[in-house]
Structures are given as C-alpha cells and as structure tokens.
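Notebook entry, structure prediction.
Reason for the run: the old model in the group folder had no record of what sequence produced it. Starting over properly, with the input documented here first.
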Amino acid sequence: MTSQIAILIGMIIYSCLMFGVSIFWMRRVKKTTDYLVGGRGLPYWVLTGTIIATCIGTGVIIGGSGLAYRYGWAGSAYAIGIGLGTVLTGFLYAKMRRYKFITLGEEVSSYYEGNRIVVEFANIGVFLSQICWLTVQIMGGTAVLSAVTKLQPEVCTVLSGFIIAMISIPGGLKTVVYTDFLQAIILLVGFGILAQTAIANAGGISGIEASVPREYFSFLGFSSYGAWAVISLILTLILSVVADPGRRQTIFSAYSEKGAKWSMIAAGIIVTIFSGVIGLTGMYAYKLNPHLASPDQCLPWLIMNVMPPWLAAVVVVSVASAVYSSANGTAIAAGTFFIRHIYPLVTGKFVKRPLVAIRRTLAVAFIVSTAIALHGGTIVGFVIKFLPLTMSGLAVIVLFGRFWKRGTWQGALAAMIITPLVSIVIMIIPGQAGFWKNPIIPATVAGTLAHIIVSLITPLPSHSFETIAERLQLERQFIEEEIQ
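New structure, fully documented this time:
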C-alpha cells in the first residue's frame, strides 16, 4: 500500500467520523445557546481537549514547523506563545463565566459602560480577526491536501474550506467541542509517534543538533531568527489569545467557573510542552532535505517522502484534526459575533431567527476566508502582518478593562485607533519594518500610553461592570430564548 492510498483511507474515515458527530449534535440543538455556548454545561475534560485542539492549529503545525525548518528552536515560539496566552487567560478571565456572556464583545461593553463607539469598534476588529484566523486554518488545510492529493493549490484551498465548513456548520459549539476532544487525542498520539520516530532515526536529539546549523540550537533560536523577532512573535500570540473570542466562548460554555479556569491552564501547559515536538519536526525535515522551496512544505514533504504509509496516514489525520478543530472554533466565534453585534450594527435591529442566520453567516464566512487564502502567502507571514492590526489594540483594552477601574471609554477608543496606525506605519516604512521585525511591541506600547493618558484626562466611569452586564443579559434574551 502506498502512502497516498493509506492517507486517503485515513482521511475518509476521519471525515466521516467528524461529520457523523456533527450531525449527531445538530439533531440535539434545541436552543440558540446550545449552538453558541453549548448550553453552558460543558465539563472540564471536554473543554481541556477542545482548547488543546484549538490551540494546536495551522499556525503551530504548519507555520511553527516551517519556522523551525528555517530557524531551529525558534519554531517552538509559536506554540509557546499560544500556550502561555492560554494559561494567562485561564488565570485572568475565567471569572467572566459568572456573567453568562456569549461573546467577548459583551465583556468589552461591560468594561467601558456599554459605550457604542468603543464596543462597535472592538466588535469590527474581533470579527475581522476571526476571518483572519479562519483564513490561516484554510491555508493549513491547503498545504496538507496539496501534498497528499497532488492537486493544484487553488483546488486544495477550495476543498479545505468546504471540509471545514461541512464539519463546523451543522451542530455549532457542541459539535466543535466533542469533535475537538477526539481530534486532540488523534493529534497528540500522531505527533508523539512522529517525534519518537524522528529522534530514533536521527540518532537522538544530538544527531539532529549535529545535522543543522549551530545557531538552530540556540535558546529559542535567538541566534538564528533574532531575539527581538522571537520575543515579538511570542508576545503577538499571547496577546492574540488573551483577546481571542474563541477562548472566551469556551469559558462561557463551561459548566462552572472553576472548570473554565483549570481547563484553560491544563491545556496551555500541554500546548507549551508540545512546542518541543514542533521544533524537532522542523529540524528533522531540514536534516533530510535542506533545500525545500517553501518552509511551510517541510511537514508535508516529510510525510510523503520519508514516513512509512501507516505513519504517514496517522500524521496527516493528526495534522488535519489540528487544522480543522482550530477552524471550527474560529468559525463559531465569527458567526456568533456577526449575529450578536455586526448584524445589529449594520441593520439597526436584531436578527429574527438567530440559528438560521448564524448558519448562513458561517457559509459566507467560509467563502470569504477561502478567497483570501488563495492569496495569503506564507502562514507565519500572514499572521505577523495581520494580527497586530486587529488584535493588539483589543488586547490592550481587555487587559486594562479587567484590572484598571480608572480606564475610560475614551482611553479605550484611543488605544484601538493608535495601535493599528502604529502597526501600519512600521510595516510600510522599510527601515522600521527591518528594525522591529514585527510591529506588535511598539504598537502595544503606543496603545497602552494612549489608553492611560486619555483615561486620566477624561471623566471617571459612571456605571459599574456589573450594571452593564445585567443590562446585556436582558438585551440578549431574544437569542437565548429562541427554540429551533
């Protein structure tokens, strides 16, 4: 049996299983809250699995291994940033479960007196960031499918978007968390086998070290990728997780506040440990073939040219599970934001049939993200360019909102305006782009200063967090009470 046939069989079994789980939960969705936040009754063990699977997506698997292929241990920075951000989110924001929010936008609204300007500005940024992340996941699926099927990348991009949509749209968040739990098991087993095989075939970690440039084995690839670039990437990913609506939706869906907290912390620790597997995978591919045209192709090349058929099938299914699980969670968050915030902003009224609307919204979101993925470039490059524009300002106002009661809506608005402007200026000025590598640090510093200065010169907030949260609970009853 060839690798291609073994992989095809594995993918068919995997896709049928995931689609079956999706249809199973679709038939059990009775209320909109079942679709959006899993009925707010999801247990700790399920949440831990879904968070792991969501964290270890395209960026970590394809982007991180590609970065390790070019710069050694720097590739581990991807998973480290996401893992640390997840742990931090668990410690700082599990408390939000008690307010029965359904979106991060509602949390932001409660921080800043429900001010429409700030809230809608933030909501647009969050929605765009989710389209960005969904695009990244489709790009990862493209890399896997193109290596396996040998079809044109454009065809694989369309197929990737279709497969992810088929799994995520029918059953909502319950589909996502239970398929993610299965996918997390597949993922950890598959990459555990891959790491063990790479170490054994290379003659141990020392064998890998002897076959790559010396700077690859510097601390987190500081000598190869640059300390500033590594730190910037980690900070970008930490902030993106802290302000990620998908992580918040997971918290909001937990059975208890305690379960939300410790599922995030446990998952973040596991993802951080997993970073070592990503670094080893990229460097092992470099040892075998240091002349690949694109670093994002190192894992697909390894699968198709080195691994025995059974292992190739296991690893491809593992990669697919990582990509699709991340995409599923991102898609649900994007759809929820649209019906709760974007649709009312555009039309001036709430949608009458939320469940029908969100499924249609997801279909459109997949079409848009697939179109963007056709012109996305490399995965790491796409993330570095887009995330500072959409997430750094949001992260600043979420952190200040949680811990600084003196913060005002005017300060939050200033931060959200300044951070993308600084990012754009740095990216378009050649000298600055070369110096900073990534605009996240100067953009975040500028946004922080803007928030503090403007808040201190504007009037104190007049409404408490709890007051706005109670008002929002009454406002969203139209969503929570809809019966399918």
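Summary: The chain has 24 helices and no strands.
The old model has been moved to the deprecated folder.
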